[in-house]
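Hi support team,

I submitted a single chain yesterday and got back a structure, but I'm not sure I'm reading the token output correctly. Could someone confirm the output below corresponds to the sequence I sent? I've pasted both exactly as they appear in my results page.

Thanks,
R.
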Amino acid sequence: MKHLIYILTFLMFPTIFFAGSIDDKEGIIILEGKYQQRNIFIAQALGAEGFGFCAYEIRVNGNLIIDEINSSAFEIDLSSFNLELGQDITIEIKHKNGCAPKVLNPGGLKPKPTFETVDIKIGEDQILEWITKNETGSLPFIVQQYKWNKWIDVGEVQGVGMTSISNYAFHVDFTSEINKFRVIQVDPEGKIKKSTAVEIESNKPKLTYTYTRSKQEIVFSNETGFEIHDKYGDLVLKGYSSSVDVSSLIKDDYWISFDSSTESFSKK
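Hi R., thanks for writing in. Yes, this is the structure output for that exact sequence:
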């Protein structure tokens, strides 16, 4: 008997597998993730025969649920299984062939940022260090630096996801003058949880730039991260280099951000 297996993977957690067969009379949806103290909501239609609903059996970590599932929408109540926050969880939804239920909140098994910042510091060695507790799922920590009047992502460290104390470190690059850093995590709905910010004053010299019209090139006095925006504020070029080719830009006025500065320049 030939089987077709379809796999759809969501970022981090959960992983959802759709498995079934051309000849079988049934299929199965498997959700894998971590318990986040949230229930799972399902919508479904009638079976292909026109009577009875799609799903006919649901198991949580192998245990059969006793909730009513014979309706167009129902809730899988995970609180009744005495699960620990962050515990591995597998949900199996068996359904009739040709009629698959829809998981309305697949992010329900994704971890949310719950970390608390115990300590965060930055030294002259350009190493950002932070200590956390009460993580309940492995999410990336995004390292951000405040420059050019905004927070900019400069790196990423995968979180351990443990409720106990966890230590992290990341090498950052200083600009001249004041340097400010923080770490954040982003939940499945896009909400941000932030650490406190730390500052340090750098002894690096302030960078300058020159624009050579004949070469259509901007040259910095040292390597630096840079962004170029047009007069409407749209980003047109970015990178990290000691020079940038601006031949692709039309003749106009622009804003160039580099080192700790934002200045205007005109391409003529």
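A quick pointer for reading it: The radius of gyration is 26 Å. Let us know if anything else looks off.

Best,
Support desk
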